[in-house]
Design goal:
about 170 residues, transmembrane helix, TLC-dom, 8 helices, TLCD2 protein, TLCD, about 0% strand
Length: about 170
């Protein structure tokens, strides 16, 4: 989180080997959450409804799992967790849709906040992470660089497509 960067300034200079106390546990718990959500979707949703999210979770589980097992790239994983701030509004959007509250002020306000946080915490964060990976390619082992590059190559288009769908659904009906 941004607070972590203020409290642990070394993190902004070294996302590979430096991480604040508790950060490793946070990333490990996040892996557990993504695993649980993955299994829940497999058991309770049709594959054609959830394949994109299952794919997303698979990428996150692999990337975060490597960070947790190696005790490296925890700082990079913390940056990636900024993306999840937007998930609050994505989930609230789903709840409002299920409650048939699409034509309410609450839904409209959430749609605006959702798109704003989507740009700030998803698109901008993913762009920053891609840039960081590219700029630090000489300092990252080839296998880790490959996993990170593939992860970013998957996540970025997925998030741009979802942004387009949200924009079309909530603002250009």
């Amino acid at each position: 989180s941004p607070r972590r960067f203020c409290l642990h300034p070394g993190l902004s200079e070294d996302l590979v080997g430096t991480h604040p106390p508790g950060a490793h546990s946070l990333v490990a718990v996040s892996v557990g959450y993504f695993l649980e959500d993955f299994v829940d979707m497999l058991c309770n949703q049709k594959l054609h409804q959830s394949w994109e999210l299952l794919f997303h979770h698979s990428v996150v589980i692999v990337c975060f799992g490597i960070a947790v097992l190696l005790h490296q790239y925890i700082g990079f994983a913390l940056v990636a967790l900024l993306v999840e701030i937007n998930s609050i509004f994505l989930h609230l959007r789903q709840i409002l849709l299920m409650a048939n509250l699409v034509h309410t002020t609450c839904y409209r306000l959430n749609s605006i906040i959702n798109l704003g946080t989507y740009v700030v915490f998803r698109i901008t964060t993913l762009a920053w992470m891609t840039r960081w990976l590219f700029l630090n390619r000489e300092n990252v082992p080839p296998a880790t660089y490959a996993v990170g590059t593939v992860g970013m190559a998957i996540m970025t288009p997925m998030n741009i497509i979802l942004f387009y769908r949200l924009l079309r659904s909530d603002f250009f009906k």
